Amino acid sequence: VQLQAFGGGLVQPGGSLRLSCATSGTIFSFNAMGWYRQAPGKQRELVADITKGGTTTYADSVKGRFTISRDNAKNTVYLQMNSLKPEDTAVYYCRAQRIDLWGQGTLVTVSS
């Protein structure tokens, strides 16, 4: 498995989770990394993206609540999710943007 995502689970509204996605050094060094999500019955959407240099972009729906970061020493990208809402419930995927390589999804469920 070239991309492995971890950290999903069940959380109450207002809670937090941190997703992680690890890959090889070669893939990590040459790619911007993105987090996407797909809710039931909806299209997959970009949640956040981080370039090799650390420039970030976010979907409007998560701005101010989610933070994407990357640890170049660990070849890992993170998605810190705070103030979670039920509408954040989805399968979350990481992607190596340049080579269009997807990791397996991790389910995040926000429910009381």
Describe the structure.
This protein is mainly beta and about 110 residues long. The protein has one helix at about 25-30; strands spanning about 5, 10, 15-25, 35-40, 45-50, 55-60, 65-70, 75-80, 90-95, 100, 105-110. The strands form 2 sheets. Strands 2, 4, 5, 6, 9, 10 and 11 form a 7-stranded mixed β-sheet that branches. A hairpin with a 4-residue loop joins strand 9 and strand 10 (about 100).
Keywords summarizing the entry:
112 residues; 4% helix; globular; mainly beta; 1 helix; seven-stranded mixed sheet
Q: Determine the number of helices (DSSP H or I, runs of at least 4 residues).
A: 1
**SSE topology string:** EEEHEEEEEEEE
User: Count of DSSP E strands?
Assistant: 11
SS-based structural class?
Answer: mainly beta
Task: Please tell me what the overall shape is.
Answer: globular
Mean pLDDT across the residues is 95
Uncertain segments of ≥5 residues (pLDDT<50)? none
Distance from first to last alpha carbon: 33 Å
Largest sheet: 7 strands, mixed
Estimated radius of gyration: 13 Å
User: What is the strand content?
Assistant: over 45%
Helix percent reads under 10%
Short description, anyone?
With 112 residues, the chain is mainly beta. The chain contains one helix and eleven strands; from the N terminus they run E-E-E-H-E-E-E-E-E-E-E-E.
